[in-house]
Amino acid sequence: MQPVDLNPKRKRENPLLWIFEPLESDPGYTRERFFNMQAAYLDGLLYLTIASGKEPWNGLSVCTSHDRQAGLLDDFPALTQHPVLGKWLYVSQSHPDFETLAHEMVALARERDPRMGVLPGKRKRSQDVIDMKASSARKKSG
User: Fold this and answer.
1) Is residue 48 classed exposed, middle or buried when 0-12, 13-18 and 19+ CB atoms within 10 A define those classes?
2) How far apart are the first and last CA of the chain?
3) What architecture (CATH level 2) is domain 17-141?
4) Residue 121 pLDDT more than 90?
5) Beta partners for 39?
6) For the chain, which has fewer Cβ within 10 Å, the N-terminal or C-terminal residue?
7) What is the DSSP string of 6-52?
8) Are 46 and 55 in contact (CB under 8 A)?
9) In the predicted model, is pLDDT for residue 7 greater than 90?
10) Strand order of the sheet with strand 45-52?
11) How many CB atoms lie within 10 A of CB 26?
12) pTM of the entire structure?
C-alpha cells in the first residue's frame, strides 16, 4: 500500500534539483520558485529553470535572448527553442542526452557564459488581483 498525502496542497520537491547542486557553492547563486519551476539565479540574473510537469514544462530551460541563441544552438544541437517561452532554450527530460546537457549548461552558467542569463522582470499584478487582495485584507482587519 502506498502512503497517502493528507495535504494535497503541499508543494512536492522538484526531482530535478540535482541539476543545481554544482551551483550551491557559488557565492552569487540563489534558487527561487518561478511559477511552477525552480530557477537558478547567479549574481541577480536568471540563468536556468527546471520543471517536472507535462511537456513543455518537463526539463531544463536555458534563459537567454533571441539574439544570443544561435551560438548555443550551434554548440548544443539538442537544445530547442522553448515552445511557449520562445526566447529561452529547452531540453526535455525525455531527451537521451538530457543529463549530459544539463551538466554542460550548469558548467556554462558557473562560468557566466555571456550567451546565458537574463535580468528578471518585475512581477506585474493585474488590477483585479490588487483589488482582491486589498478587499481580503480589509475583511480580516475589520
Assistant:
1) buried
2) 48
3) Alpha-Beta Complex (3.90)
4) no
5) 32, 49
6) N
7) S-TTSPPPPTTGGGGGGGTT-TTEEEEEETTEEEEEETTEEEEEEEE
8) no
9) no
10) 29-34, 37-42, 45-52, 58-62, 89-92, 80-81
11) 14
12) 0.78
Instruction: Give SS3 for 94.
Output: coil
C-alpha span between 89 and 79 (Å, rounded): 6
* Lookup result for grid cell 557565492: 27
Mean pLDDT of 13-30: 95
Phi/psi of residue 108, each to 5°?
A: -65, -40
Q: How would you class 46 by CB atoms within 10 Å of its CB: exposed for 0-12, middle for 13-18, buried for 19 or more?
A: buried
* For the chain, the helix, strand and coil percentages under 3-state DSSP, each to the nearest 5: 30, 25, 45
CA distance linking residue 67 with residue 55, whole number of Å: 25
Quote the cell numbers at residue 116.
546565458
Query: Hey, how many other C-beta atoms are within 10 angstroms of the C-beta on 80?
Result: 14
Cell of 124: 506585474
Tell me the residue length of the chain: 142
Assess whether pLDDT exceeds 80 at residue 128.
no
